[in-house]
Each structure stands twice: as structure tokens, then as C-alpha cells.
UniProtKB/TrEMBL annotation:
This is Cyclin-like F-box. Residues 61-107 form the F-box domain.
Length: 327
């Protein structure tokens, strides 16, 4: 992982970057299984159903159907996600209209897992398809500007795993815990702030969480006293709340159509596994664990690759990506 000299970078300039990426990087699955997630086996069938096209239909949407099509589609784009999906069930004409609403098809094609989670956690009534499309097409974490592979559901902010793990996300709390402490009643809070109802599952610590909790961003609740905060923490116990309100979201580059989930460096991982983090003169100045866990976009990874001797070594030992059996 020692920094390379600039002159040696030239040997990689004429290589297809995707060959290097396939050989020297990998997607870190354990980050994605630490947060809210859906069963990928269920998604394919749902996707084809949601994308089905209806060319002609005799059904109508009543007086609304008398409006110009552009106006109807504009109204559809202003529906929150839950209302849009409810509207879709009215009849075949409504289904047709929703299918042509701006952003719908892109979201179904590229953000279906996140969309399913958004509907199941009941936060869908707070955001529109355009909000989700905007998050899908945003690349960087809203907090640290690194590549972000996740979405923080209470605000639809793109974020990175490091910010979830380091507790950098805006504070969240369980509604019952906050309802007992603060002036607003629970029902008042429900109507006032985005509420995420968590799903049963195993999160970052691997413990099965069967109970569903209602989580809100506490910034909306007003200022809690130090004593109240202490009480909130006691009531929340050890629940990994921020993992329970975050889910994976790939990043779509609209211009190129490339979808990215974020990649880590195989070279840095191999180096750390070999040395167990022991001090070494070839360690870069960064914390090696942080570097091992860093998630890159394709372009960011290529910049790293030009500096990472371990990744370059993997690339060369694979005979330029032809033999990856030992990687
Ligand atoms: Zn971040
Ligand atoms: Zn590396």
C-alpha cells in the first residue's frame, strides 16, 4: 500500500478500467446486511409487475381525466409515494398514468429494494418519487462527501456506511420514549415528522429484532434537557436505531446510465489480513482499517489503484485480470 511513483501509473493508462475494477475491487456485502434490507428473491417478480405496460384501456379516472395529460402527470408527480401506489390500484388507466409519471420507471428499475423498504417502513407518505429519484442520482454522502451507498430514511439523505457506524447521522429516537418525555403527543408527532416503522430482522450486531419500532428524527421534537436525553437513551437500550432506519441505495449516473453500489479495495483487504494491522513501514499514513473499509466510486477507486501497490500487485499476479482464481 506504499504510495507509488507517478511515473509508474502510466502502465495502467491503456487498460480498460472495468477489467482492473473487476480484479482489484469487491463489493462489501456485510455493510448492506447491517441495515434494513429486502429479500432479493422477491424483487424480480415485483419489478416486472410494476413495469408492465398497458397500451389501451377503456377505464377512466373520472373528472380528473378531463385535464390535459401533462397536468395529470404533474399531479401524479406531486403525490407522495404511498398515495401514488394507492392511486395505481384504482384501475388500469391509473396504472397507465403512474407508469408514465416522471421518475417512476427509473426508480422501479434501479431502486426497487429501497422503494420496497420505504413502503414497508411506512415512511413513503412523507416523500415523493422525485425525492427518491434525486437521492438515487446523488453520489456522495450528505455528511462527509465520500461515496454513499445508503439512504437515511427519516430525511432521504444519501449517506455512507462510515457515517452510520461513526454515529454521524442526525439523532433519532423511538416515539414512545420521546412521547413520554416531551410535550407533543404521539399522534401529534406522527402527523408532524417523518416516522420510520422498523422491520423485523438482524441488524449490525446480528441479534434478531422481532419487534417493530417507530423512529423519528429527534431534531423535530425540540430541545430535550440533558436529563431527558439520558432517559431516552435508557429507554432505547442497545437498539441500533440508525442501522434500523437506513437501507442500501445504489447510485445512478443519469448521463452514462451506470449504476454503482460502491466498491472496496481487494489489495488493502489482503494487506490487512496478512499483517493484522501490525505496524509496517509500507503502511500509508491513513489508518489501515479505515482504508480497508473505504467505499469508492469507480473513478475514485482508479485514483486509489494508481497509489495502491497491493492492488497493483493483485492485478499483475492475475495476469491482468485473466486469472483471478487466487484473488
Ligand atoms: Zn459519510
Ligand atoms: Zn488499496
Amino acid at each position: 500500500m506504499e504510495s507509488n511513483t507517478a511515473g509508474k501509473c502510466c502502465e495502467f493508462e491503456n487498460v480498460d478500467k472495468m477489467d482492473i475494477i473487476r480484479t482489484a475491487s469487491y463489493h462489501r456485502h456485510n455493510f448492506g446486511i447491517s441495515v434494513l434490507r429486502a429479500n432479493p428473491r422477491d424483487l424480480d417478480q415485483v419489478q416486472s409487475s410494476l413495469l408492465q405496460t398497458i397500451s389501451t384501456t377503456s377505464s377512466t379516472v373520472g373528472d380528473v381525466g378531463l385535464l390535459p395529460l401533462e397536468v395529470i402527470l404533474e399531479i401524479c408527480s406531486l403525490f407522495d409515494i404511498q398515495s401514488l401506489f394507492n392511486f395505481r390500484h384504482v384501475n388500469r388507466r391509473a396504472l397507465q398514468l403512474v407508469a408514465t409519471t416522471r421518475g417512476y420507471e427509473v426508480v422501479i428499475r434501479h431502486a426497487l429494494e429501497a422503494l420496497g423498504i420505504i413502503l414497508r417502513t411506512k415512511v413513503a407518505s412523507w416523500f415523493t418519487i422525485s425525492d427518491l429519484l434525486k437521492a438515487l442520482c446523488t453520489r456522495d454522502c450528505g455528511l462527509c462527501c465520500s461515496f454513499g451507498s445508503f439512504i437515511f430514511l427519516p430525511s432521504f439523505m444519501r449517506c455512507c456506511f462510515a457515517c452510520v457506524r461513526k454515529n454521524c447521522l442526525p439523532p433519532v429516537g423511538r416515539v414512545p420514549a420521546l412521547g413520554k418525555l416531551s410535550n407533543p403527543s404521539q399522534s401529534y408527532l406522527h402527523g408532524l415528522v417523518p416516522t420510520v416503522t422498523t422491520l423485523p430482522g438482524r441488524y449490525v450486531e446480528g441479534i434478531m429484532r422481532k419487534q417493530r419500532y417507530e423512529i423519528i428524527p429527534t431534531e423535530f421534537v425540540g430541545t430535550l434537557s440533558v436529563r431527558e436525553w439520558h432517559r431516552v437513551r435508557q429507554l432505547q437500550g442497545s437498539l441500533p436505531l440508525k442501522y434500523m432506519v437506513t437501507t442500501s441505495l445504489p447510485c445512478l449516473d443519469v448521463e452514462s446510465g451506470v449504476l454503482q453500489n460502491g466498491i472496496c479495495c481487494n489489495g488493502c483487504d489482503a494487506f490487512l489480513r496478512r499483517t493484522h494491522g501490525a505496524k509496517s513501514p509500507s503502511f500509508p499514513s491513513d489508518n489501515p482499517w479505515t482504508l480497508r473499509d473505504k467505499v469508492y466510486s469507480y473513478d475514485e477507486f482508479m485514483e486509489h489503484f494508481r497509489e495502491c501497490r497491493e492492488a497493483q500487485s493483485l492485478w499483475k499476479s492475475s495476469n491482468q485480470g485473466i486469472d483471478v482464481s487466487n484473488i
